[in-house]
Automatic annotation (TrEMBL):
Binding-site residues, substrate: 64, 116, 161, 168, 192, 244, 262
Pfam families: Glutaminase (PF04960)
Subunit structure: Homotetramer.
The protein's Enzyme Commission number: 3.5.1.2
Enzyme kind, highest EC tier: hydrolase
PANTHER family in the cross-refs: GLUTAMINASE
Reactions accelerated catalytically: L-glutamine + H2O = L-glutamate + NH4(+)
GO molecular-function terms, A-Z: glutaminase activity
GO biological-process terms attached to the record: glutamate biosynthetic process; L-glutamine catabolic process
Family: Belongs to the glutaminase family.
Domain of life of the organism encoding this protein: Bacteria
Protein name: Glutaminase
Amino acid sequence: MFGLLEGLVEKNKEYIKDGDVANYIPALSKVDKNQLGIAIIYLTKDGYKDYFAGDYTTNFAIESTSKVITLIMAMMDHSPEYVFQKIGTEPSGFPFNSILNMNINNKEVPSNPFINAGAIVVNSLIKGKDSEEKINRILNFTRKLANNDFIDVNEEVYLSEKRTGDINRSLGYYLKGKNVISGDVEDILDAYFKQCSISVCALDLAKIGSVLANKGVCPWNNKKLIPEDICTITKSIMVTCGLYDESGSFAVHIGVPAKSGVGGGILATVPNKMGIGIYGPSLDSKGNSVAGIKLLQELSKTLDLNIFE
Ligand code: DON
């Protein structure tokens, strides 16, 4: 398996040139785009085995991949029924930060929890008296899911997100104006910018994916962190909405629940089999890791991971 992963990383580096780092967030535009790495946490009868290759320990900004974690928390803090009164479960077909995701002519709630408008609503639902309490809860949960106490917010990325986050600000105020969120918009956005700035590596994402694959139970200590129904809902939304307006082709060609982020991360989870974390900061036009997607596509074919087969 190590040989397979090393070969796939080397081969798929050729696609790095077809994309670029996210340059709308200044701190992300400084990242070296020539990186690619993968980690796998493979579920076994009595625990797990880990496999990795390339830049799998390099830290990067979690960005939209954090939306998986906050969705789980909001459902656990309330209930799935409550959360999905405030956001839809439909893929939108529009870019992740588009105001069109608001379903303006329909129900006037964001299409799904993974586009920015939906993720801002999700963040507003997380319990905590202010952004500090919320981000501490998000960090603690992320640390447990990834079995890594060192996970923290990258201050430079956070300040960069906050300084340049005007589209998110406009989405936040629109949602407040439409009574979809309540409370202090700036404080909710502050917690959202911080959740996107959490620093993780591909191995952390693979571990989070393995908990989802294992129906909410950590394969390393058998602790149940997520109720099973919430795991199932999360994986379903990852399949339909995880890669924004590229979700359809991703499902057709790869067939694995996954969530991307503009930091270059992909968190994938193969039910009952494995968690996969990928890092490749060169992005395609939709904001997804260009070489990472190719790598995952080849891995899915080689290991027969497509859940629809
Ligand atoms: O809100 C934003 O635009 C970023 N902090 C996160 C966007 C993102 O990762 C979209 N994913 N591909």
